[in-house]
Amino acid sequence: MENLIGLGILAALLVIGYFFGRRSELKHYKKIRQQEEKLAYMPVVIGQWKNELDPQQSYELVHGSVVVGSDYFKTFASSIRQIFGGNIASFETLIDRGRREAINRMKLQARALGATKVINMRLETSSIGSNQKGKQGLPSVEVHAYATAVYPPELIS
Amino acid sequence: MSEFKQRIPKESVNYTNEHPIKDYIAMVVGIIVIIGVLLVSLDFIVGLGVDRITFEQESRWFSKVNRDSAQGLFGKEDSLKAKNSAREEKLHELLEKLWLPFGEGKTVHFKVGIMPQKELNAFTGIGGQFYFTDGLMDKNLSLNGLGFVACHELGHFFHRHVLKASARGLLMNLLLKFIGLGGVGETLIDTSSEIFSLKFSRDAERAADSFALDCQQKFFGHVNGLDEFFINIQKNEGMAVSFLSSHPKMQERIEELKLQAVKKGYSLEGELSSISSFFDESND
Questions:
Q1: What ipTM does this complex have?
Q2: Which carries the bigger pLDDT value, residue A49 or residue B77?
Q3: Interface test with A, best of B29, B184, B196 (most A CBs within 10 A)
Q4: Mean pLDDT of chain B, nearest integer
Q5: Residue A131 has what pLDDT?
Q6: Does pLDDT of B284 surpass 50?
């Protein structure tokens, strides 16, 4: 009976994790795409142009960060994948969503400043609450996008 | 800088667009198959090793296992100990008599204990230790009924089930620790390994039942009373799912035993001996 309960709890957590995780992922992607379309007018590049910076323009740091949590199904699937090796497909969408959302948030900040473009963009990724130092938990990923926003001087109040 | 053109990034460049369930099912099935193969191989290896250990060696090696500290389930009251001490002696005698045709003339030092528990149960420990509950002893089974239970437990000792299960469990745990997967993936490995272990346990029960049939026939000259214990515990069996149970279903066991008895030509009818006649001998 104990085994049956254990198996039932495991199956229930997987089903809940899969359906709710999938639903929230699709919803998140929809929101990301809408934001990307709205913010597409603003170029984001990783080039520094140290020698070509226009002294007439103003520059300011902008950043956006996001923490995306894994669901039980993704974590389960990834830990099994570790045995066989290969692409951990279940985490790929997690990272992809994190990156795109972080860039969108950074662009939103740049837009609020009236920036016309964003240069020298960098991305940092770190894991939060994963299986570190013997602590178990569902992993989350933090993605931080930061860059230099370029905007015309007349916008400085 | 050339003129900037508005473009939306292409979808699914950075992630696989395949449905995750397909990949996942393949991996889960793979894990279950691997665990199954691993356990069957371990069982084979353990079997090779354990079969080289004689009954005498097993009982000698584990003779120092202290009954009270090992179980912690025995009554501490002196009156209870005194009551059970006499019954333990008779049970010990019964077990030795039942074992006689199988011991090949070699001495095995059994340890017998009666636990102050109401449930009807008996089990075998490592090195020829046998435990019976007060509930079973007080149930007024016939000597044949109690003899079948004792024979069944001797069957576990004969087939070295406890030793094999302990060695298999130890090796499997070491392997799992070595893999060190951690997290939720370990739950799947633990669960599938437990389900396979339950299959071993059910097979062991069937083998012990089969041994008990031969043992009962040799001692009593018939196998009447083989179902007494099962009938008494059948009502408490519950709704356990077969593949998640450590024991086969009671009704299945009774039917299987009767079928085996018929095949082996053992009589299912015969006079049942009274338990009191045997246990009161010592008090006379």
A1: 0.70
A2: A49
A3: B184
A4: 80
A5: 55
A6: no
Of the partner residues B6, B182, B194, the one whose CB lies closest to the CB of residue A41: B6
* DSSP code per residue over B245-282: -SS--HHHHHHHHHHHHHHHT--S--PPPPHHHHHTGG
Distance from CA of A151 to the nearest CA of B (A): 16
Nearest by CB to A10, from B18, B191, B238: name it: B191
Nearest CA in chain A to B7: A40
- The answer as to whether B279 is a domain residue is yes
Residues 6+ apart with CB under 8 A from A73: A14, A17, A18, A21, A90, B20, B24
Looking at beta carbons, which residues of chain A come within 8 Å of B179? Answer: 83
Instruction: Return the pLDDT at A79.
Output: 78
**CA proximity to A13, closest of A74, A64, A67, A60:** A74
Q: pLDDT per residue over B145-196, tens digit each?
A: 999 999 999 999 999 998 888 888 888 888 777 766 555 566 677 777 777 7
Residue A140 Rama label (left phi>0; alpha psi -120 to 50; beta): beta
Contact A10 B24 (CB under 8 A): no
Beta carbons of A3 and B195 less than 8 Å apart? yes
| Contact (Cβ atoms closer than 8 angstroms) between residue B247 and residue B205 | yes
Among A36-45, A127-136, B186-195, B212-221, whose mean pLDDT is lowest? A127-136
pLDDT the model gives residue B70: 45
Partner residue facing A89 (CB), from B18, B195, B241: B18
Residues of B with Cβ-Cβ distance to A84 under 8 angstroms:
27, 30
**Superfamily (CATH H level) for A2-155:** Hypothetical protein apc22750. Chain B (3.30.110.70)
Residue of A43, A79, A90 with shortest CB distance to B20 = A90
Q: A3-17, B74-88, B103-117, B239-253: which has the minimum mean pLDDT?
A: B74-88
Domain hosting residue B271, numbered range: 20-233+242-283
Q: Tell if the CB–CB gap between B183 and A136 is shorter than 8 Å.
A: yes
Residue B238 region by backbone torsions, left for phi larger than 0, else alpha for psi between -120 and 50, else beta: left
